[in-house]
């Protein structure tokens, strides 16, 4: 029971990242009909927003501390963060400690701007072009963004820790009646799952219960008719591109304590996220979320030693095997609209 619960939690953790990236991909494909291979780069940019905020908050100045000396007896220079000098060690230190959650405030406008610039500057010129052209140009854009990040931040992963209060692990087994220490799970991974559920719920609520969202859903179903009603659907779709970029960026921000940001992390998630979208159904938002969590759980159980001893390497191919089966039996995906991916 404890092993099953632990693997389920691992699957939900992986599925959270898959679902958030796939949700943004599906928003773009469902509204604009664009296959955006640069979406993984948006996840990476969000992660490096967190890195940037952490570096800014840790900017320091040097002072001489007469109470500390080197082996020759000379006073040592110590670095004091500006925030601690301005606001005191307690409040300033707390701001530095909570740099990752605070990066959300910084990342939202940055990611929306990046999304707007990407859509208006490049992708709008490929709306009526074949999907192959869209894939080539957005994949090229992803490589460019990746190399830009590599130039400014280097090739090595950059550790970005979670706040001290959210480090460590929680004993979840005790909460459901299992023995103490039976199910120990990192607190930040639980936070990430809760954050992903909040973002997914917010996106669905926005599309379902706001006038803007209703118009967007109508435009996804019949763009031409909505345009004939005098509604500037293109502007709304551009805004949705910005929202999709923000969703991917926020997923990257909160993922930094789990996996230290590096310049190729976007590519690592991109292929898996497209598999998630295809399995869930191209253009289906509920399908993207469902497939993200489902495939995350399957991958987690496939990584168990008991399973790998019977089927070596199954954890590396399980997601692709599921995708092949789905495409052969139901080309539209689990929850895809009829006619999509069936031509």
UniProtKB/TrEMBL annotation:
Subcellular localization: Cell membrane
One Pfam family of this chain: BPD_transp_2
One GO cellular component, as annotated: plasma membrane
Transmembrane segments: 15-35, 42-61, 98-123, 190-216, 237-258, 270-298, 310-328
GO molecular function: transmembrane transporter activity
Membrane topology: Multi-pass membrane protein
Gene Ontology BP terms: amino acid transport
Keyword annotations of the record: Amino-acid transport, Cell membrane, Membrane, Transmembrane, Transmembrane helix, Transport
Highest taxon listed in the record's lineage: Bacteria
Family, similarity comment: Belongs to the binding-protein-dependent transport system permease family. LivHM subfamily.
Protein name (record): High-affinity branched-chain amino acid transport system permease protein
Organism annotation: Actibacterium atlanticum
Lineage, top ranks: Bacteria, Pseudomonadati, Pseudomonadota, Alphaproteobacteria, Rhodobacterales
């Amino acid at each position: 029971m404890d092993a099953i619960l632990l693997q389920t939690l691992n699957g939900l953790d992986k599925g959270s990242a898959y679902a958030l990236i796939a949700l943004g991909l599906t928003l773009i494909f469902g509204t604009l009909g664009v296959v955006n291979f640069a979406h993984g780069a948006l996840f990476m940019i969000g992660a490096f927003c967190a890195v940037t905020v952490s570096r800014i908050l840790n900017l320091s100045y040097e002072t001489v501390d007469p109470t500390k000396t080197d082996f020759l007896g000379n006073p040592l220079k110590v670095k004091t963060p500006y925030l601690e000098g301005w606001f005191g060690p307690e409040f300033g230190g707390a701001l530095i400690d909570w740099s990752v959650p605070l990066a959300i405030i910084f990342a939202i406008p940055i990611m929306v701007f990046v999304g707007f610039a990407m859509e208006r500057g490049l992708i709008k010129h490929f709306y009526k072009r074949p999907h192959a052209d869209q894939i080539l140009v957005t994949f090229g854009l992803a490589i460019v963004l990746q190399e830009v990040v590599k130039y400014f931040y280097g090739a090595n992963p950059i550790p970005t820790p979670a706040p001290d209060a959210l480090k460590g692990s929680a004993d979840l087994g005790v909460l459901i009646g299992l023995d103490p220490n039976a199910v120990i799970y990192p607190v930040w991974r639980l936070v990430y799952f809760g954050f992903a559920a909040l973002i997914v719920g917010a996106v669905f609520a926005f599309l379902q219960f706001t006038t803007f969202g209703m118009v967007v859903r109508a435009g996804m179903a019949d763009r031409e008719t909505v345009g004939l009603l005098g509604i500037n659907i293109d502007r709304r779709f551009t805004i949705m591109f910005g929202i999709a970029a923000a969703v991917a960026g926020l997923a990257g921000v909160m993922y930094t304590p789990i996996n230290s940001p590096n310049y190729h992390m976007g590519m690592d998630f991109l292929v898996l996220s497209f598999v998630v979208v295809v399995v869930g159904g191209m253009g289906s938002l509920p399908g993207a979320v469902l497939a993200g969590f489902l495939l995350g759980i399957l991958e987690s159980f496939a990584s168990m030693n008991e399973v790998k001893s019977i089927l070596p390497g199954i954890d590396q191919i399980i997601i692709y095997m599921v995708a092949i089966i789905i495409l052969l039996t139901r080309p539209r995906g689990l929850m895809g609209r009829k006619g999509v991916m069936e031509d």
